[in-house]
Amino acid sequence: MRLAAFDPCWPEELHAAGQLLDYWTHAAGLLPIEDYPLCQSLIHETFIGWKKIREWGEANPAIIAEFLAYLPANGAVKSLDFARERPRGKWWGWKVEKVALEYLYYKGAVIVASRQGF
């Protein structure tokens, strides 16, 4: 479906209000929050990188547990918020913190609260 002229701030406002979900189905996009259960199962079938990220997450349970403990106490975070250096992941030079957040995102344990660029 295509929309006629609309205010470009509209998607960001709806996302900030929790009515749209930032998620990856066949491409990154904003979707109605009601579609989240459908998207979560679809990601595992369509996103080619999920297998590698899943394997990494399953091989690093201590790092995943660290993030799952960190997030409730600290709220929304970006991978840029983590300055400490660890060995980098294999994908595009991502640091471990970025790979851990991606794993939790694709697993459905966290969602994107806001986005400032892509």
Structure overview:
With 118 residues, the chain is mainly α. The chain has one domain. The protein contains 5 helices and 2 strands, in the order H-E-E-H-H-H-H. It has helices at 9-16, 36-46, 50-59, 61-74, 96-107, and strands spanning 20-24, 28-32. Strands 1-2 form a two-stranded antiparallel ribbon. The longest helix has 14 residues, at 61-74.
User: Overall pLDDT, averaged?
Assistant: 78
Give the SSE string: HEEHHHH
**Mass-distribution shape:** globular
Beta-strand percentage range: 5-15%
- Compute the CA-based radius of gyration: 15 Å
**What percent of residues adopt helix (DSSP H or I)?**
40-55%
Structural class based on helices, strands and sheet pairing: mainly alpha
Strand order of the largest sheet: 1-2
Record field, number of beta strands: 2
Span between termini = 23 Å
Domains, number = 1
Sheet having the most strands: 2 strands, antiparallel
Number of helices: 5
Q: Give the low-pLDDT segments.
A: none
Strand and helix layout:
Elements: H1 9-16, E1 20-24, E2 28-32, H2 36-46, H3 50-59, H4 61-74, H5 96-107
Antiparallel strand pairs: 1-2
Helix pairs in contact: 3-5
Brief overview, please?
This protein has 118 residues and is mainly alpha-helical. It is 47% helix and 8% strand.
Supply the key terms.
single chain, 118 residues, two-stranded antiparallel sheet, 5 helices, 2 strands, 8% strand
